[in-house]
């Protein structure tokens, strides 16, 4: 760095920033850009049981959507899997958004001391730095047939016998997702809320708005960027997931990520690559729509 | 808002907040308690006595595949990821304070690296290394390089593909933290140093670095803990030697004793220890920075 003095004058072309950014660019090129390109290329390759065959074929995409045009005989596996993943996505999104919003609102508008607010914010975010798998495992003694929840339900007479739907079900999967990912909504929404000029709320009140009206017409529109960023995080994390759905679903629930993982374990790399390309396309589509949402609102 | 009396929404949201915190921490505390199950105890309550039995079996390595090897692997990888994340994020964050060619593209790529589903990144890295392996083998055979064609298995490994996969996850967080730091950074101090004749390196070393040091502890914390717990991006790209979270994921379906709770508690303990160390580090760095500015 000392060997390349940065040039602050606008006419000069500074070299120092380029060199300083180079390591980041190199890592992303080697471990992000090239891998995505490799995925796109391999998705068009053929394969045998043992090796990749580099000739261009549409086989992987054709096989992926085999029988999908024939809706009369029910949905094909691919569509069914996508639908069930999207359904999980919608449920998780609804809960994380609601919870994340409520928590941020409490921290941003109801806590008066900055120190207290920071402390409570850290309490909410610290678990992010601990292991996801262990946080999933932690639910097992609570939700199992002999678990704490069932012991309580039976003892209190609410149910006659232990409930099976608590664990290795859609319920436990959604519960774990909400447990793990509410934070991804809380942080950006909290950030948006802290930037809201408090005088706007007072102005709304002075103009005679009720609490709900202030929330709906002032707070939510101003929090929209945070809500969109949080939603993108949650949707993308759930759509590509295979770990949480695997562990909490008892390896019984299908998901897009799971298909890719299984195909990889059978060394069907091109098929997995095709799945990945379609998944990536869907994710990008969702992101494009969601970012449009904020822009349109801004224009209105 | 009435300044003296708390509105009803405060109590409702406060109650919800408290419940949410219980929801966040309750399960982890449950396995903390259950990890001290007596030797006859099972995976759930009631506790049959209190003991460190399961920690002892864990320490002896009985029952579980060589868990300590993966523990050490994850620790080593975590430290390397931590150092690289801190250095690369600091440099890149510093670079972004000025204009440079490809700035917008690099920023978008970094955000994309955060957003693209982990399974896709993981698969991509696996494919990349597979293509690389095939190319190396083909090259070795064509040119008759014997030591290469016989000895070479794969370039995949903990500190190649595994390290790269982790960096694609930790660097976006590192860069975003550095953005937040440099956004609040006082430019006039740098200018003053420059006016006094400091070289760019001296400005960086004696003005910028001491001021951002506390935040670098935060970047390091993210670097280590995100790597220590990473699973989705590692899964396809690690090669043969699994990291600890991957072993743990495998254990969820095979282990039927509280040993897994003991292991989980130890792993969480490492995270908590690192977070605590980071807090100590930040306060030390802040104190030193304050002393430097005042003295």
Automatic annotation (TrEMBL), chain B:
Pfam families assigned to the protein according to its UniProt record, in alphabetical order: BPD_transp_1
Keywords for this protein: Cell membrane, Membrane, Transmembrane, Transmembrane helix, Transport
Similarity comment: Belongs to the binding-protein-dependent transport system permease family. CysTW subfamily.
Keyword DNA-binding part of the UniProt annotation: no
Provenance organism: Belnapia arida
Cleavable signal peptide: none
Protein name: ABC transporter permease
Topology of this chain in the membrane: Multi-pass membrane protein
Ranges for domain ABC transmembrane type-1: 71-278
Keyword Membrane: yes
InterPro entries in alphabetical order: Bact_Polyamine_Transport, MetI-like, MetI-like_sf
Residue spans crossing the bilayer: 12-34, 77-96, 105-127, 163-182, 203-224, 260-285
Record localization: Cell membrane
């Amino acid at each position: 760095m000392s060997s390349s003095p940065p040039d602050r004058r606008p006419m000069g072309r500074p070299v120092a920033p380029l060199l300083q950014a180079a390591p980041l660019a190199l890592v992303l090129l080697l471990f992000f850009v090239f891998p995505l390109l490799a995925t796109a290329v391999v998705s068009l390759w053929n394969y045998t049981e043992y090796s990749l065959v580099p000739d261009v074929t549409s086989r992987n995409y054709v096989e992926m959507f085999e029988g999908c045009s024939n809706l009369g005989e029910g949905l094909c596996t691919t569509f069914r899997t996508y639908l069930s993943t999207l359904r999980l996505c919608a449920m998780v999104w609804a809960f994380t958004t609601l919870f994340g919003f409520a928590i941020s609102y409490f921290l941003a508008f109801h806590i008066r001391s900055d120190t207290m607010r920071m402390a409570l914010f850290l309490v909410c975010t610290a678990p992010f730095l601990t292991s996801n798998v262990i946080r999933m495992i932690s639910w097992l003694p609570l939700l199992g047939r002999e678990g704490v929840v069932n012991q309580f339900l039976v003892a209190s007479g609410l149910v006659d016998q232990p409930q099976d739907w608590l664990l290795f079900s859609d319920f436990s999967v959604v519960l774990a997702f909400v447990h793990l990912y509410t934070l991804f909504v809380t942080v950006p929404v909290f950030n948006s809320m802290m930037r809201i000029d408090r005088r706007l709320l007072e102005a709304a009140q002075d103009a005679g708005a009720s609490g709900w009206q202030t929330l709906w017409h002032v707070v939510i529109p101003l929090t929209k960027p945070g809500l969109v960023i949080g939603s993108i995080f949650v949707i993308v994390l759930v759509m590509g997931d295979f770990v949480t759905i695997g562990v909490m679903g008892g390896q019984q629930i299908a998901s897009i990520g799971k298909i890719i993982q299984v195909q990889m374990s059978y060394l069907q790399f091109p098929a997995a690559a095709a799945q990945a390309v379609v998944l990536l396309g869907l994710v990008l589509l969702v992101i494009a729509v969601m970012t449009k949402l904020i822009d349109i609102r801004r224009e209105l | 808002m009435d300044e003296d009396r708390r509105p009803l929404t405060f109590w409702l949201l406060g109650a919800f907040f408290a419940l949410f915190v219980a929801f966040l921490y309750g399960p982890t505390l449950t396995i903390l308690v259950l990890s001290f199950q007596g030797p006859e105890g099972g995976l759930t309550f009631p506790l049959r006595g209190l003991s460190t039995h399961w920690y002892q079996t864990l320490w002896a390595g009985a029952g579980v595949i060589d868990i300590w090897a993966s523990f050490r692997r994850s620790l080593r990888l975590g430290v390397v990821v931590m150092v690289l994340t801190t250095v690369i994020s600091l440099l890149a964050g510093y670079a972004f304070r000025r204009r440079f060619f490809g700035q917008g593209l690099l920023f978008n790529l970094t955000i994309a690296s955060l957003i693209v589903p982990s399974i896709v990144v993981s698969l991509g890295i696996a494919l990349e290394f597979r293509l690389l392996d095939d190319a190396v083998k083909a090259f070795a055979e064509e040119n008759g390089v014997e030591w290469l064609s016989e000895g070479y298995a794969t370039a995949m490994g903990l500190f190649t593909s595994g390290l790269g996969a982790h960096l694609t996850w930790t660097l976006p967080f590192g860069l975003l933290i550095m953005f937040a730091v440099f956004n609040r950074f006082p430019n006039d101090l740098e200018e003053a140093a420059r006016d006094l004749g400091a070289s760019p390196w001296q400005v960086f070393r004696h003005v910028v670095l001491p001021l951002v040091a506390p935040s670098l502890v935060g970047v390091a914390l993210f670097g280590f803990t995100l790597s220590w717990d990473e699973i989705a991006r590692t899964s396809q790209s690690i090669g043969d030697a699994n990291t600890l979270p991957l072993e743990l994921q495998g254990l969820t379906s095979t282990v039927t004793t509280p040993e897994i709770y003991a292991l989980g508690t130890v792993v969480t303990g490492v995270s908590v220890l690192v977070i605590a160390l980071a807090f100590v580090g930040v306060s030390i760095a802040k104190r030193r920075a304050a002393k430097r500015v005042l003295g």
